[in-house]
Amino acid sequence: MRLKKYTDYSLRVLVYVGSKENGELSSIKEISDSFGISQNHLSKIVHELSKLGLIDTIRGRGGGMRLAVEPVDINVGHVVRNMEDDFTLVEWLGKSEHDCGLNTGYALTHIFNDALTLFLQELDKYSLHDVLMNTVEVNSVMEIGE
Predict the structure, then answer these.
(1) Which residue among 47, 59, 70, 146 is least crowded, i.e. fewest CB within 10 A of its CB?
(2) What is the pTM of this model?
(3) Residues 6+ apart with CB under 8 A from 146
């Protein structure tokens, strides 16, 4: 499974804005320069994060953005769920056996749905505070290609 760049950039914006001291404002230009993301794309992301109540935006000269809530109240799973528009892991997931051409498709559908549920539950364990304080404990390390 791969999250969209939109979700990745949303999390980056939250980390960048959340890392500022004492409510210091961040600008779209700053974030754009820092991560090499287009300002137009960031504007859409900031608008969405603002609609979710996660950041406050201040317009005009000297404006910018800051977190609207404490980092501990920003759940990583919540952000991912709201930024992703499609959690379909496999194209045929959710189709009938006849549509996917597999007589075991129904069992695989449940396996993938369970895996997605566990993935999101794992993200739900963490807040932006955990990320900013680098307090995320790694329970296991898996080498790709083992």
Answers:
(1) 146
(2) 0.82
(3) none
CA atoms in the 13 A half-sphere facing the CB of 115: 12
Domains of the chain as residue ranges with CATH: 5-132 (1.10.10.10)
Contact (CB, 8 A) for 127 and 71: yes
Residues 33-83 pLDDT 10s:
999 999 999 999 999 999 999 999 999 888 999 999 999 999 999 999 999
Q: Of 87, 85, 110, 114, give the one whose Cα is nearest residue 97.
A: 110
Question: Which pLDDT score is estimated for 146?
Answer: 47
Q: Which two tokens stand for residue 21?
A: 């001291």
Q: 15: Cβ–Cβ under 8 A, 6 or more apart, which residues?
A: 128, 131, 132
